[in-house]
Structures are given as C-alpha cells and as structure tokens.
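#lab-general

N.A. 3:47 PM
ok so I finally got the sequence cleaned up, no stray characters, all 171 residues accounted for. can someone with queue access submit it? mine expired

B.Y. 3:52 PM
send it over

N.A. 3:53 PM
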Amino acid sequence: MTNQDCLAGIESLPRIWAFALRLTEQERDAERLVAQACRRFSAGDWSRGASRCLRPLHRLFSIMATVWLEEGYAQRHARLQPLEGECTCDPAVSSDCRATDCVHCLLRHAVSSLPDAQRVPMLLVLVEGLSYAEAGDVLSMSNNEVAEIVAQGRATVAGMLSKHRQVSELC
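B.Y. 4:20 PM
back already:
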C-alpha cells in the first residue's frame, strides 16, 4: 500500500463510519466493523476480488461489505425489532411523535428490514452515491446485477410504505 492510499484511507474515515452506522445501526458494531476494515485495508487484504485499481474509499467499502456479509454481523442484525416507541429523528420534534407516524423512521425501518443482499447495494448507490458500476466493483457484481437489486429493493421498500399507509388509513 502506498502512502497516498494510506492517506486516502484516513481521509475516508468519516464516510466509512457513516456507512458502518447505516449498515449495523449500532455504534459498537460499527466501531468493530470500521476497525476490522481498517486493519484489512492497511494489511493490503483485498477482499472478495476487490481490485487494487479501486479507489481507496471503494476498497474500504468492499472490505466492510465482505466482513458484514461473511463474518456474522449480518446474522445479528437479522433480529430486527418491530417499529415501536417515539420518533428519535429530530430532538426538536415533540416527544409525542410516534415512530410509526414519522416518515424517516418508517423509511429507515423498511430499508433495515431488507435482506442484506438488497440493503448493501441500496446503501452504496442511494446513500453513498456510488454509480452502479462503482457499486458493482465494490461488491464484485455486474452493473446490471446492481441495478436490478437496487430496483427490487426500492420496490420492496415502496410496497412496505404503501402497506403501512393503507393500514394507518384504516385506523
């Protein structure tokens, strides 16, 4: 690894921290995931066919996705809790706001409930702003596979939100 790669990896820490938090939804697991990814990155471990020609940030995303999917983090996340309680999105909002009434809470919960095979590409493309080609490189998939998975994930989330809207209209 060159000094330039190392510096780029350090400069990427805020982005990989945000990605880890979105992926794990828990600070403790996000810390472990980032630490493990940084160790592998600095050791030159190019996981799951991640090419050395990837930009350092994309290599880190690739390592994190591999660790998440292959080393048991995803199984812990799979025990998703039902959406209950108060909205915690905006502290300025009254605590009377229920999570089931908050669009952001509903959207986060819908995305969290997706299988990781859909959720990880969606986070990379729709939140991190990677192109389908870049996400494909990160995940060792074709552009078309990524585009199809993201489209399926969007449709699933839209269906969940629509279903919630129909249920809330009945109440």
